[in-house]
Specification:
Elements lengths: L8 E3 L4 H5 L9 H9 L2 H9 L6 H13 L6 E4 L6 E3 L6 E5 H14 L5 H4 L4 E2 L2 E5 L6 E4 L3 E3 L4 E8 L4 H10 L2 H16 L4 E8 L6 E5 L3 H11 L2 H10 L20
Parallel strand pairs: 2-4, 9-10
Antiparallel strand pairs: 1-6, 3-4, 5-8, 6-7, 8-9, 10-11
Length: 263
């Protein structure tokens, strides 16, 4: 890793390509961290070297982000076919969606602007700005890309489209999908760049009527649990980068846990 080519700071105008697959591809992001911790170093390396094709649900979610955050050029609306598609480009990733899907996304965005809390968060000026920082423990260069951020109010916002935004269901999804780990990483990265502590709020928007919305402040125990996971892998991660060695699962003889439903 060429440490001198990076510099700590915020970089506006960075394309999705450069952030994920271009100039900043070898900086450590939260998705890479989660795969490293939950699967193995080999799986994490594969996820950046050869990312799989985006699913229709992921494309629609990305299109929602683009529309909600004010990047309409990233969305192509067609009458047919109805299957979403991703048109990759070094300058701009374009999400191809059907007209019916666009109407649904517009309704989701409209709901955001009528929600007491969400409509204020959606007014934050900085959107999808790449942040680059060096981890003080490992010297590894790392990256974040907040959906929205207010340096005046010191708040990071992450938009999520979901089937069920209820406190009970989405509250579980936060830990199921590792959103709390992303929150911890973004809070940490922002502090390294700005020397200030920021809050991290997830805005969850349902994909179908009545387009319910809930907002979640990720703090306290959730962040501590995330850092337990992150701190357990940083040493191994530094070793993998230094040696350019990315092993898969450790060669143990496992005894599987018996699921509760078996009993």
């Amino acid at each position: 890793m060429e440490k001198m080519k990076f510099k700590t700071g915020w970089y506006s105008g960075v394309s999705n390509y450069d952030h994920h697959r271009g100039f900043y591809w070898d900086c450590i992001g939260s998705s890479f961290l989660k795969t490293f911790a939950d699967r193995s170093p080999a799986h994490a390396k594969e996820s950046v070297d050869n990312p799989g094709e985006a699913t229709p649900a992921q494309i629609i979610g990305s299109a929602f982000h683009s529309v909600a955050l004010g990047f309409p050029d990233e969305v192509v609306v067609v009458d047919k076919p109805k299957t979403p598609a991703l048109n990759k480009d070094e300058e701009l990733d374009r999400y191809q969606i059907h007209t019916d899907t666009k109407k649904n996304i517009d309704a989701m965005v409209d709901a955001l602007h009528h929600h007491t809390i969400a409509k204020k968060l959606m007014q934050f000026p900085d959107r999808e700005v790449t942040g680059i920082f060096q981890d003080y423990g490992t010297d590894l260069w790392c990256k974040i890309r907040p959906d929205l951020i207010s340096h005046e109010q010191k708040i990071i916002v992450d938009l999520k489209s979901t089937v069920d935004a209820s406190v009970d269901k989405f509250g579980k999804d936060i830990f199921k999908f590792g959103y709390h780990v992303s929150a911890a990483w973004y809070k940490y990265g922002t502090e390294q760049i700005t020397s200030d502590r920021y809050a991290f709020i997830i805005v969850a928007v349902e994909k179908s009527p009545p387009y319910g919305i809930n907002c979640f402040n990720i703090t306290g125990t959730a962040i501590r649990k995330a850092w337990d996971k992150i701190s357990n892998i940083t040493g191994d991660l530094a070793d993998c980068v230094r040696d350019n060695s990315w092993p898969s699962y450790k060669p143990f003889l496992h005894e599987p846990d018996v699921p509760g439903w078996v009993m």
